[in-house]
Write a structure and sequence with these properties.
With 115 residues, the chain is α+β, with helices and mostly antiparallel strands. It folds into two domains: 36 residues; 78 residues, no CATH class. 35% of the residues lie in helices and 26% in strands. The strands form two sheets. A three-stranded antiparallel β-sheet has the order 1-4-5, with no helix packed on it. The chain has a two-stranded antiparallel sheet with strand order 2-3. The longest helix has 20 residues. It starts with 5 loop residues before the first helix and ends with a helix.
C-alpha cells in the first residue's frame, strides 16, 4: 500500500481539494444543525488500477500507430462508503480512467448483489 502526502494530491488534482472542502463543510454543518444518528459507519478505499507499462495502444486523439512506453503516474480506483448499522449504505466510486465500459458496471453490481 502506498501513501502519498495530501499536499501532492491537492496540487496535482485541485478538484480533490474542493471536494474535500465541501465534504468537510457538510460534515461540520450536519453535526451542528441537524440532529442525526451518530452511529454512521464511514469507510474509504483505494486500489491501484494501472495497466501495463508498455506496448499498449493509446486511445483518444493519439496517432493510431503510437505505442505507450512507461507510466506517467499510477491510476487509482477510490471508494467512499457511508452506512447505517441497519444495513442501508451509499457508495461513491471514482476511477482515474477515461471511461469504464457498461460491462464493468454490470459485473460490479452483480458482485455487490451476490454478497
Amino acid at each position: 500500500m502506498e501513501f502519498y502526502p495530501l499536499s501532492n494530491l491537492y496540487l496535482q488534482r485541485p478538484i480533490w481539494f474542493l471536494i474535500s472542502l465541501v465534504f468537510l463543510l457538510l460534515l461540520l454543518l450536519n453535526g451542528r444543525v441537524v440532529l442525526s444518528d451518530p452511529n454512521y459507519l464511514i469507510g474509504l478505499g483505494s486500489y491501484d488500477i494501472t495497466g501495463p507499462a508498455a506496448d499498449v495502444n493509446m486511445m483518444g486523439y493519439a496517432n493510431t500507430e503510437q505505442i505507450a512506453s512507461g507510466i506517467h503516474f499510477r491510476l487509482r480506483a477510490r471508494s467512499f462508503i457511508v452506512a447505517q448499522p441497519q444495513g442501508n449504505r451509499v457508495v461513491f466510486v471514482n476511477l482515474d480512467a477515461c471511461m469504464a465500459s457498461q460491462l464493468v458496471t454490470i459485473k460490479v453490481i452483480e458482485r455487490l448483489k451476490a454478497r
